[in-house]
Automatic annotation (TrEMBL):
It is found in: Cell membrane. It is a multi-pass membrane protein. Probable chloride channel. One of its GO terms (molecular function) is volume-sensitive chloride channel activity. This is Protein tweety homolog.
Length: 150
C-alpha cells in the first residue's frame, strides 16, 4: 500500500461560488469564510439556490407563455405562400435543445466531481484505517514487552 498523500484540489466552480456575494435571507451581507455550521452561511447558500430556482422558474414561465401564444394566436396561413412560417418554432426548438444539452452536460460534470470526491474520501478512510492498524500492532508490541519486563 502506497502511503503517498493525495492533496485535494478544489474545482474552479467552487472558487467562483465562494467569491460570489454571500447574502442571507434577510438580505444582509455574510462573511465569505467557509463555516457550514453557521446559520448565516447556510442561509446564504439557500439564497443562492433560491436565485437559481427563480431564474429557472422565470425561464420556464416565459417559455410556456411563448408557446401558448404561438399555439393560440397563430396567424392564418397565407394561401399564396407555399412555405409555412416556422422560423420562430424552429429557433425555439433549437434554443430549448441547447439548454437541455447544457443541463445534461452540467449534470455529467457534477456526477464526475461527486465521484472524484467519494473516491478521495474512500481512499483517505482506507489510508487512515491502515495507519491506525499499524499503530495498534505497535502499541500491542510495547504492551507485551512491558509485561515481560524487558
Amino acid at each position: 500500500m502506497s502511503t503517498a498523500r493525495v492533496d485535494y484540489i478544489a474545482p474552479w466552480w467552487t472558487y467562483w461560488l465562494h467569491n460570489f456575494p454571500h447574502i442571507n435571507l434577510r438580505f444582509q451581507p455574510v462573511d465569505r469564510i467557509f463555516r457550514p455550521e453557521d446559520d448565516n452561511y447556510q442561509q446564504s447558500l439557500i439564497f443562492l439556490v433560491c436565485v437559481a430556482a427563480a431564474g429557472l422558474g422565470l425561464t420556464l414561465l416565459f417559455l410556456a407563455v411563448y408557446l401558448s401564444c404561438l399555439c393560440c394566436c397563430r396567424r392564418e396561413k397565407d394561401e399564396d405562400s407555399k412555405r409555412p412560417q416556422t422560423c420562430c418554432v424552429t429557433w425555439a426548438a433549437v434554443i430549448a435543445g441547447l439548454v437541455i444539452c447544457s443541463a445534461v452536460g452540467v449534470g455529467f460534470y457534477g456526477n464526475s466531481e461527486t465521484n472524484d470526491g467519494v473516491y478521495q474520501l474512500t481512499y483517505s478512510l482506507y489510508d487512515a484505517n491502515h495507519t491506525l492498524r499499524g499503530i495498534d500492532s505497535l502499541v500491542s508490541g510495547v504492551r507485551l514487552h512491558s509485561r515481560d519486563g524487558r
